[in-house]
Design goal:
This protein is of the alpha/beta class. Helix content is about 50%, strand content about 10%. The protein has a seven-stranded mixed sheet with strand order 1-7-6-5-2-3-4. α12 packs across α13.
Length: about 450
């Protein structure tokens, strides 16, 4: 901890850290696999965008190769070059970091881990934006779609169960709500294990019915504030004479995880815990598998086209919820900025004010958690509200399978105990947390 009680940000300065491993190994592998995927997709790209797009492919491949070399050799981070609306913000932040270093630009190993990792994925989008014919191309589209298709059986099993239970809620079986809420929070939590950025884009889909695994996975939930989350929703409704409000879900990965998030939203809607669900996705392709608006729409369209009744019917129901406004999707550019969420009020006051309208904001996944707590080297027992560094727009809940070093809110001795059982517990995705925080004014 620093003298101000704030932990330092994680970086690659320690060569034994996961941050160093990510920058030294994981990012170059991701760039290599992205290059390979692009080269293998040449014919499909030509069929979709025309033969003239082959020059664009060459441009992107050349830039990917150059970027991989710069990462591996710790070169200075280069400014973005396209005319996209957020480029000025990114380049201004790079200039500020250069100024803080007495005019020396940050390099890939000297900058903070969160900044470097976000910058790499934003640079990839910049390369696409600089093309003539491929400006709408998603470098990770094929991996995301394959991950969804590979999880067809777990998706079917999960949606069949959801189709069985939601009609009972709609006929007044309110006594089932707490147990079902707990179950679908855990479904959404463990859906986060499937992350293509962690596997460098390799196949990492859910293969088995998640419902059958929950009892086995439950002991691996290090923090479980689910009861507090439910109480917050019910308390908000009670304060309005039973009128339920809005729940926001800040999405993480496409594929199976997105389906689990949609299931949680359906449970909230069917159980009368939310009158409106607002999904937040990414404005650009991000961290390989993060959900864009196109991924969201494609998933529902694909579900509607399947032969399984539960899958197709729920796909149609969810499209209807979007059409009638009960559910909405948006993609604010702040979600793909380099900033931690404690800086949202400064850099995106409109988004902060919008989140403040919710009864609950659910943040999915590891990157969202890292941005919630500033990606800092907190002592594991640091209270979660303290680690948020003043970010309190509304009651919030983080659902996260651990895949990075930062953690807060553990009991004394808990980190040491888990470390004896599993030395890679912070980064292998086998442990998880459900952390809740109410704003100070409503505590």
């Amino acid at each position: 901890m620093g003298d101000d009680g704030i932990a330092p940000p994680l970086s690659a300065k320690d060569k034994t850290s996961f941050a160093y491993y990510t920058i030294n190994a994981r990012l170059p592998v991701t760039l290599a696999k992205t290059t390979d995927s692009l080269c293998r997709s040449k014919q499909k790209i030509a069929d979709q965008f025309g033969k003239e797009a082959m020059e664009d492919v060459k441009l992107i491949v050349g830039r990917l190769t150059k970027l991989r070399y710069e990462v591996q050799t710790d070169k200075p981070i280069a400014p973005l070059e396209s005319d996209a609306p957020d480029v000025a913000m990114w380049n201004a932040e790079l200039a500020q970091q250069t100024e803080l270093r007495q005019g020396v630009p940050p390099t890939w190993y000297s900058a903070t881990w969160l900044y470097v990792e976000c910058y790499m994925y934003r640079a990839l989008q910049d390369y696409v934006a600089l093309t003539k014919n491929l400006k709408t191309y998603d470098l990770f589209q094929d991996q995301k779609r394959s991950a969804f298709r590979d999880a067809a059986e777990p998706v079917r099993s999960l949606l069949s169960y959801l189709s069985e239970v939601t009609p009972r809620l709609q006929t007044g079986a309110s006594e089932e709500i707490p147990d079902l809420f707990l179950l679908f929070v855990q479904v959404a939590l463990w859906g986060n294990k499937c992350d293509l950025s962690i596997s460098q884009g390799a196949e990492n889909s859910q293969k088995e019915c998640l419902l059958k695994q929950l009892s086995h996975l439950k002991p691996h939930i290090l923090i479980d504030d689910t009861s507090q989350v439910l109480a917050a929703l019910q308390g908000a409704a009670a304060s309005r004479n039973g009128q339920v409000g809005r729940v926001d879900i800040v999405l993480d990965n496409a594929g199976f995880e997105l389906v689990t998030d949609l299931c949680l939203a359906e449970l909230l809607t069917a159980a009368g815990l939310a009158s409106h669900v607002h999904f937040h996705g990414k404005a650009v392709s991000w961290f390989v598998s993060d959900v864009t608006e196109h991924d969201f729409s494609w998933t529902l369209d694909t579900m509607c086209g399947t032969e399984d009744p539960a899958v197709s019917q729920l796909g149609a129901r969810w499209k209807s919820r979007l059409q009638d406004g009960m559910w909405t999707f948006s993609a604010h550019p702040f979600w793909t900025s380099p900033y931690s969420f404690s800086l949202m009020k400064q850099h995106a006051p409109d988004l902060y004010a919008d989140l403040a309208q919710a009864d609950l904001v659910v943040f999915k996944g590891d990157l969202n958690y890292r941005k919630l707590v500033g990606d800092r080297a907190w002592e594991p027992t640091t209270p979660f509200p303290l680690a948020l560094e003043g970010f309190h727009p509304a009651p919030l809940c983080a659902l996260r399978a651990l895949k990075a070093d930062t953690i807060s809110g553990l009991r004394p001795g808990q980190a040491e105990q888990v470390g004896q059982e599993d030395e890679k517990w912070k980064v292998n995705g086998n442990w998880a947390i459900v952390s809740f925080c109410a704003p100070p004014s409503s505590s």
